[in-house]
Design brief:
Two copies of one chain form a homodimer. With 193 residues, chain A is of the alpha/beta class. In chain A, 30% of the residues lie in helices and 20% in strands. Chain A starts with 15 loop residues before the first strand and ends with a strand. At the A-B interface, helix 1, strand 4, strand 6 and helix 5 of A face helix 1, strand 4, strand 6 and helix 5 of B.
Chain lengths: 193, 193
C-alpha cells in the first residue's frame, strides 16, 4: 500500500497512514472513531483498523469523507503483521507512538524521521501493546508525546501537527460538499446543495 | 477559582483550566477521561466536568495525579454558567474550542489571546453546544483547530501544545511516584518504591 495511495497531504511531504492496533469493537468505538477522524482532519492519507472489523467506524469515516471532502483511505481487518511487513517492504518507516519512546520535544526524533523523507506508518496502540512493538522487528522509531499518560488521540494530533508543521490545519479539502467558513462569532457553512 | 489555583505550568505563562461541557456519564466516560488526562499531561492546571458528576472520571484523574505527580485541580457538577461567570469576574478569559471559530493556523487568534496575558478557561463541548457559547455572553474567543470535524481531545491537545509552545511536553511533574525515562527501545520506569 505504501506506494499505491494518493499523496494528498500538505508540503508535498511523504504521506502518513495511521494503524490503530487493539481496538475492541464495543468499548472503543467512539475513541477509535476520534482517532480516525483526527487522522483524516489532520491530513493523514489513510487509517487502518487492524485485525478487527467495525462497521460503525467505517460508516462514520466514509460518511464524513464523502461530505467534508478529500481522499482518505479506510481499511479494516488486516492483520497488523501483514501491514507492517508490506509497509516496510515498500520502503516506508514505522513510528510507534508510546509514552515510553523518545520525547518529541526533547529529542531530535522528529528531525531524524523527516530527514528520511519516507512514507510513515504511525502505529497507535492502546494501553498494553505487544512487547515487540518497541523492537526493531516492528518499529523504526518509538516516539512519545510527552512522557505522561494521556491519550492516543491527543498524541496522534500533536504528532501530525508537528510533522506537517501546522499546514495541515489550513488545507482545503477537495470535492467537499460542506465547508466551514471560520469566523469570530456564530457558525457559517457553505454547502453545494 | 481563577486566582486561587497554583500556577504549575511551563513558561510562567497564565494558567489554563479546561471546562468540559455536555458529558453523558455512560456514553462519554472514556472520551472525557482522555480529555481530562490530556489537560493534565499537557500542563493545564485543572479540569472541570460541568453540570454532572461522574465518579469514574474523578477516580481515574485523581489516581493518575497521585501516582504521576504534579498539582491538578479536579472539579465536577458545577453549573457551567457559574464557572464562566466566576472566571470572568476574576479577570480570566474564556476560549471556546469549536470547528466554526477562527482557525488557529490562519488567524492571529492565539497571539491575541496570549497578548492578553490572562488566565484561560478552555471550553470544550461535544457536537451540539448551546448557541450562546459562540456569543460574547459566554466566550471571548471562538477558536478552531482546523475547520474539519475531528475530536475535542485532539483539538485540546493542539491548543495546549501551541499555547505552551511545546514546553509542556518536557515538564517535570513534582512529587511523582513513577516516572518514565524516555528511550529509543523498550520501557524504562523509575519508581520511588
Amino acid at each position: 500500500m505504501a506506494n499505491s495511495q494518493p499523496n494528498e497531504n500538505p508540503n508535498n511531504s511523504p504521506k502518513i497512514v495511521v494503524l490503530r492496533w487493539g481496538h475492541r469493537p464495543q468499548r472503543d468505538v467512539r475513541l477509535t472513531t476520534h482517532v480516525a477522524l483526527t487522522a483524516r482532519a489532520l491530513c493523514a492519507s489513510g487509517f487502518i483498523l487492524s485485525d478487527v472489523e467495525d462497521s460503525n467506524i467505517e460508516q462514520t469515516v466514509k460518511k464524513i469523507t464523502a461530505r467534508w471532502g478529500g481522499i482518505f483511505h479506510f481499511e479494516m481487518g488486516t492483520p497488523w503483521k501483514k501491514t507492517i511487513h508490506d509497509w516496510r517492504a515498500n520502503g516506508g518507516v514505522v513510528i510507534h507512538l508510546t509514552a515510553y519512546g523518545e520525547n518529541i520535544q526533547t529529542s531530535d526524533a522528529l528531525n531524524r524521521i523527516k530527514n528520511l523523507n519516507k512514507d510513515v506508518l504511525v502505529l497507535v496502540g492502546s494501553q498494553k501493546v505487544p512487547g515487540e512493538f518497541y523492537s526493531s522487528v516492528v518499529s523504526d522509531f518509538n516516539v512519545s508525546i510527552g512522557n505522561q499518560p494521556h491519550s492516543e488521540c491527543s498524541a496522534l494530533a500533536i504528532f501530525l501537527d508537528r510533522f506537517f508543521e501546522g499546514k495541515e490545519l489550513s488545507k482545503d479539502f477537495e470535492k467537499a460538499k460542506i465547508k466551514i467558513i471560520p469566523r469570530e462569532r456564530g457558525k457559517e457553512i457553505k454547502t453545494d446543495d
